[in-house]
């Protein structure tokens, strides 16, 4: 499988804080490499969140301790959302088909996923995990999924196969969830809330999707997209999705964003969809769903259904 993390196409070689002379790249070191930006007074934490490089930029005398708390929160949330940790809440739910007294964060994501599912005409659907597994297994063996396998797997996909309330989540037999189209943004939101609760007002958080609190030392947080457009953020979030940001095949033609209606990868209609919103989880879900929308009008209608959300960049393939 060709794995070019979605964020690689999201913000070119990373987002450039040009106004304060800082480049925070996607190749964030694993662990917690830290560096002070020359002349900017910003403390830069680099680590990993949900399998992607993560960065936090802030200016505070207790920055190391604050970033350590943020790293602990990221780890806690990975124990809920990760599909790579066998004992995470999501992995356990997929394996057992139900969860009693589920984590409130898991319920939050499912509630938001349901809203985006409705306004995207069913295109955003976390139950595509069985399809994702089918494509991954097939292409690891050097071939595309057969028509029969695709039809059988589609029978295990559908948002109506998920039932959830405060005390219980239930999946229909054979159904499994992936929250990869929303959880990176959700993690950024939760880190932002943690730091806000500790008195910070000006922070930039990048967990694969970006959440800005307040402003940079000399104005809004400037983010440069792969399209070349600059988006200035203040108390706002930004997410981007590229259908071929991760590909199943070695040639890089079979993208990872799958349509739950027919099981096929997103068409070549869009090369990049960037959406900003008040929260990163919402921006994340909308940009993912946007890759499956057939035209700009339907994409705009979906985004307009959510207060404060807007399209920042839209590139054809």
What does this protein look like?
Helix 2 packs antiparallel against helix 7. The chain has nine helices and 17 strands. With 317 residues, it is α+β, with helices and mostly antiparallel strands. The N terminus is likely disordered. The two termini are 21 Å apart. The strands form five sheets. The chain has an eight-stranded antiparallel β-sheet. A three-stranded antiparallel β-sheet has the order 7-9-8. The protein has a two-stranded antiparallel ribbon with strand order 1-15. The protein is globular, with a radius of gyration of 19 Å.
List keywords for this structure.
317 residues, alpha+beta, 8-stranded antiparallel β-sheet, 3-stranded antiparallel β-sheet, 9 helices, globular
Query: How are helices and strands ordered from N to C?
Result: EHEEEEEHHEHHHEEHEEEEEEEHHE
Mean pLDDT: 87
Distance between the termini: 21 Å
Beta-strand percentage range: 15-25%
Nearest-angstrom radius of gyration? 19 Å
Chain-wise SSE layout:
Layout: E1 2-3, H1 6-10, E2 14-17, E3 22-25, E4 34-36, E5 43-49, E6 52-58, H2 63-81, H3 89-96, E7 98-100, H4 104-119, H5 129-140, H6 147-154, E8 162-165, E9 168-171, H7 183-197, E10 203-206, E11 210-213, E12 221-224, E13 230-233, E14 236-241, E15 246-247, E16 270-277, H8 280-290, H9 296-304, E17 310-316
Antiparallel strand pairs: 1-15, 2-3, 4-5, 5-6, 6-10, 7-9, 8-9, 10-11, 11-14, 12-13, 14-16, 16-17
Helix pairs in contact: 2-7, 4-8, 7-8
